[in-house]
Specification:
Layout: H1 6-19, E1 33-37, E2 40-43, E3 48-51, H2 64-74, H3 86-96, E4 105-109, H4 112-127, E5 131-135, H5 144-148, E6 163-166, H6 179-196, E7 201-207, H7 223-232, E8 236-240, E9 265-268, E10 279-283, H8 285-292, H9 305-320, H10 323-342, E11 348-354, E12 357-362, H11 373-385, E13 388-389, E14 391-393, E15 399-402, H12 410-429
Parallel strand pairs: 3-13, 5-6, 5-7, 7-8, 8-9
Antiparallel strand pairs: 1-2, 2-3, 4-10, 9-10, 11-12, 12-15, 14-15
Helix pairs in contact: 2-9, 3-9, 4-8, 6-7, 10-12, 11-12
The structure holds 4'-deoxy-4'-aminopyridoxal-5'-phosphate.
The site of 4'-deoxy-4'-aminopyridoxal-5'-phosphate (PMP) has 14 residues, from helix 4.
Length: about 425
């Protein structure tokens, strides 16, 4: 803290006075942000930063159509969800139309955590089970029940008795000849173990791009045998689309579509309202009916008319600006650029991803693949100095999570690749 500029030090102290020492801030010297537009953010000192990290304002920061939709609705009507309202029903119909049959009902929430929490409750009600499977470094949110299925929130602590984990399909570190069958076998083993301990299986919850496990998007189709195994054992497949959803993979609106599967339950969040707090659960109507037979769910703010207006504008912008296609084209170009500089920088172990969700993994040596989180950290800080914001993920914290707004251009991608090249040259020089 001693080396910080005085205004930053005062702003940090002010933050900690109110929020305590658990307050999470980005960077050793945090940045005070004042405004943003498109793919750019602006700090209090006037510096501009290219946003390559933030997948919430997914159609672009302060997109005028989303801003205007929110502004108009908040000045017209904003009530809880116990009244009929055309905007709310129009949004529900538009959103549900994006899902394959038989997904046909929707519950709207304010956050992804709430969506996952209600998904766990539905799976319990529909199966009579309590046991859940997640991946080893999964994050699914912050409620008590969801924290139990978020091993990354409690590193090193034992899992709750009703939870089992399976490895994410890590092709780089050897997921076997058939990663899908491998994951399905691990799931079957986890189910057998839980049932041996008297826990009945309720379902699996997976982020379909395994973002907190380090971004594992391939091979396409990998989740099909996993889903078959889950169903064979009477469980439900919950696809957590908080990270890949709303077009980020460049292949389709939903990450699970790359795997040719139809989940039982799909949960949504982050980009859903482009920053307006929104989450949701789309599911088979029979599952919601099974839940409603003995349980009730009410959310005061979830899916209110302002949220619905924001959500509708997001769907409109994704369609009208061709953002799924843009994510595919720019994402491919971005990965090509990173692979090209990997020829010069041996610390780059792997470049992977789908659309504009890219993982860039750093290693100490390519043979042993020893994780190099210190390189990831040096690159994150080096890029920040060069006006680019980016973060890391994965069990070892050595994988950059590249996740810009979907309106990113090839030129934006080229700029990041060039600056990465520059930072890595500096890092190599010591
Ligand atoms: N699921 C996944 C995969 C997430 O990444 C997150 C948030 N990082 C959540 C759920 C929780 O969403 P929220 O923070 O909106 O509660």
């Amino acid at each position: 803290a001693g080396s910080m500029a005085a205004p930053t030090r005062r702003a940090v102290e002010r933050r900690l006075r109110s929020f305590g020492t658990g307050a999470v801030l980005f960077y050793r010297e945090p940045i005070e942000m004042v405004r943003a537009e498109g793919v750019w953010m602006e700090a209090a000192d006037g510096r501009r930063y290219l946003d390559v990290y933030n997948n919430v304002p997914s159609v672009g920061h302060c997109h005028p159509r989303v801003v205007e939709a929110i502004r108009r609705q908040v000045g017209t009507l904003n009530v809880h969800t116990r009244y009929l309202n055309d905007v709310v029903d129009t949004y529900a119909e538009r959103l549900l139309a994006t899902f394959p049959d038989p997904i046909g009902n929707l519950v709207l929430t304010c956050t992804g955590s709430e969506a996952n929490d209600i998904a766990l409750r539905v799976a319990q009600a529909a199966t009579g089970g309590t046991g859940f499977i997640v991946t080893e470094t999964a994050y699914h949110g912050n409620t008590a029940a969801v924290t139990d299925v978020s091993p990354s929130s409690r590193p090193g602590r034992p899992l709750a008795p009703h939870v089992r984990t399976v490895p994410a399909p890590d092709l780089y570190r050897g997921a076997g000849a058939d990663p899908g069958e491998g994951m399905a076998a691990a799931v079957a083993q986890a189910i057998a173990d839980m049932e041996r301990h008297g826990v009945r299986f309720a379902g699996i919850m997976v982020d379909t791009v395994f973002s907190s496990d380090g971004v594992h998007t391939d091979p396409e189709g990998l989740l099909a045998p996993v889903l078959a195994t889950v169903h064979a054992h009477g469980g439900l497949f919950i696809a957590d689309e908080v990270q890949p959803g709303f077009g980020r993979t460049g292949a389709a609106l939903w990450g699970f579509e790359r795997h040719g599967i139809v989940p039982d339950i799909v949960t949504l969040g982050k980009p859903m309202g482009n920053g307006f707090p929104m989450g949701g659960m789309a599911l088979r109507p029979d599952l919601l009916a099974a839940f409603n037979a003995g349980d009730r769910y009410f959310n005061t703010f979830g899916g209110n008319p302002v949220a619905a207006a924001a959500g509708l504008a997001v769907l409109d912008v994704i369609r009208d600006e061709g953002l799924v296609e843009n994510a595919r084209i720019v994402g491919e170009h971005f990965r090509d650029g990173l692979r090209e500089i990997a020829n010069r920088h041996v610390v780059i172990g792997d470049v992977r991803g789908a659309g504009l969700f890219i993982g860039l993994e750093f290693v100490a040596d390519r043979e042993g693949k020893a994780p190099a989180p210190e390189v990831a950290s040096a690159v994150i800080n080096g890029l920040r100095e060069r006006g680019v914001l980016i973060g890391a993920a994965g069990a070892y914290g050595n994988t950059l999570k590249i996740r810009p707004p979907l309106c990113f251009t090839r030129q934006d991608a080229d700029r990041v690749v060039e600056l990465c090249d520059d930072v890595l040259t500096e890092v190599a020089a010591g």
